[in-house]
Amino acid sequence: AQALGIGIPSQLLSSLPYLATIVVLVLISRNRRLTMINTPASLGRPFVPDR
């Protein structure tokens, strides 16, 4: 960006890794099949230890 003469605030450049992470997580979570495969099987069930 500097070579082209475009001024970009340093705060924006510093936040790019965080923004990229959020974008990747949103894209991954949009795939419902992949999300269902990777969720725990006992999600939402109460824990009852064997006695």
Question: What's the domain count?
Answer: 1
The best one-word shape is: elongated
Between the first and last Cα atoms, what is the distance in angstroms?
64 Å
Which H/E pattern describes the elements?
HH
Share in β-strands: under 5%
Using DSSP, what is the number of strands? 0
Helix content bin: 40-55%
- What summary fits the major beta sheet? none
Explained architecture:
By secondary structure, the chain is mainly alpha-helical. The chain has one domain (1-36). It contains 2 helices and no strands. The protein starts with 9 loop residues before the first helix and ends in a 13-residue tail after the last helix.
Topology:
Elements lengths: L9 H20 L2 H7 L13
Characteristics of this structure?
mainly alpha; 2 helices; 53% helix
Summarize the structure.
The chain has 51 residues and is an all-alpha fold. 53% of the residues lie in helices and 0% in strands.
